[in-house]
Amino acid sequence: MRFDPQQDDRSGTGCVTRRGFLHSGAVGVGGLAGIGLLGPGVVFAKRRHGPRPIPGGFDENFQPVPKHPVIHLLAPGIGSEMSTITDLNGIVGGSEIRGIAHGSDGSTYDFDADMRFMRGTYVGLDRRVHHGTFGFI
């Protein structure tokens, strides 16, 4: 490996720059670290013990419905169910942030973000008790 600060790494000479070496190393280490997160259940989306969602939510037109919703969540607010998991015994935290965003082209957009997290024990779809942490953005 040769280092020549005057030569561009895209010149096709085959030299490896410090930047390219560090980038390749970071990608390799990140890939190896991520392998442990991708078990067969995650890769093939097998969730035998996933949580049971709340019965109500919104239909395809974003109208609240008490049963068989497309989206299993309710609008945030005082007195509203903030959890999206049935049979959860734990902590639920949430935040709704509203404002105006400014685009790089000078246009403005309304901004509304509903973020929640749930942590605790729950009865899963397999009818067994599990512990987990979930987030909704």
Describe this structure in words.
It contains two helices and five strands; from the N terminus they run H-H-E-E-E-E-E. The strands form two sheets. A three-stranded antiparallel beta sheet has the order 3-4-5, with no helix packed on it. Strands 1-2 form a two-stranded antiparallel sheet. With 137 residues, the protein is α+β, with helices and mostly antiparallel strands. It has helices at residues 18-35, 40-43, and strands at 57-58, 64-65, 88-102, 108-123, 129-136. The chain has two domains: 1-38, no CATH class; 47-136, no CATH class. Strand 1 and strand 2 (64-65) form a beta hairpin. 5% of the residues are buried.
Produce a short descriptive summary.
The protein is of the alpha+beta class. The protein contains two helices and five strands. The protein has two domains: 1-38, no CATH class; 47-136, no CATH class.
